Structure formats: C-alpha cells, structure tokens
C-alpha cells in the first residue's frame, strides 16, 4: 500500500495517481484504498475525476470511501460542481458520495432537476441522497417532488423511489391519494404499492405491486377484498 502525504512530487505519489487509471481493476482498487487509508486533500481532484469515468462498481465504491475520509469542507463544494456535469456517471457518483458523507450543507445542491433527471441512475442517486440530507422542515416538499416520479422506469427504479418515499415517513401518506387517482394505471399501481410498503415496511415490494395492480384492475371499490 502506498502512503499519501501532501507533497505530490515523489515517485510514490506519481505511481498512485497512475494506478488510479491503470487498466487492471485490482490495481485501481488498491490505489483507491491507499488514498482512503492515508487521506490527503491533494488527491481530491484525482479521486473525483476518476469517479466520473470508473467502470468498476467496487472501485467506484472505494473511491467514494476515500472521498469520505477527506474533510467535508472541501469535498462537498467539489462534488457540488460535479452535479452540473454533462456526464451522467459524474452526477450519480457525486450524489452517492454526498449521501455517504452526510453533511447537511449538501442539501442545497440537491435540486428538483436532479430529482427528475432524465438518467435513471442519476435520479435514483438523487432520491437516496435527498432523503439522507433533507431537513425535517422540507420533507413534505421533497415528498411532493418525488411523487411526480411515480410510474417511472423499470422495477429497480420504482423500488428505489418507493424506498425513498417510505424513508421520509408519515409526511408521505397525505401526498399519495392524488397519485392513486391518476389516469395512468402505472402511476396508480406504483403509488398504491408505496402506500402498502409505508404501512407495512416488511412487506415485499413485488407483493405490494401485485396487490396494487389488482386494485387498479378491479377498481378502488374492490380494494378491501383484494387485500384480505
């Protein structure tokens, strides 16, 4: 493992920077681990740049860990800049890292446009970060914004949204009726499945979706008989 300090002039530091971009993912993983084991603010830019392009999930996770080891005073502003990147992975990984850092000051950079981002992975990362960072006074507004995304994407995207809403707690239930009255069957089923999870967090998402779809298909007047 290569120790890191703040003087980036010796061959060890150069090797670590080179290793972050190596062809072999194990080499990149070891370099990211070294950056976190011996945290040095001088490596902030290199770690953030690598997050934007790193193809390996495990290496990305180690890069995030390395960034959490640096002072949030410097990481949060830098990651906030990444949220304006045209590269979707840069945005999603920055959001993921902000959620792991957990600094309340990052809430100000979680914009409605990120919560509705056209890229599903960016949106999912934004939802997860938002529920970690949102102040109590703004939970209702966040829940209302997230509710505009009902019916979006595949199973994994919908599960992510439901989990984010459930994590907000009791402020969510009052915003669900509007979605459950939508003309879109997918929106209605997704909202009902989320209500099912909110009332019974131990329930499986797929079972909640199946039950919700039956209610949507048969009509709300049949809800009681389909959930018994």
UniProtKB/TrEMBL annotation:
SUPFAM superfamilies: ARM repeat. This is HEAT repeat domain-containing protein. It comes from Nocardia aurea.
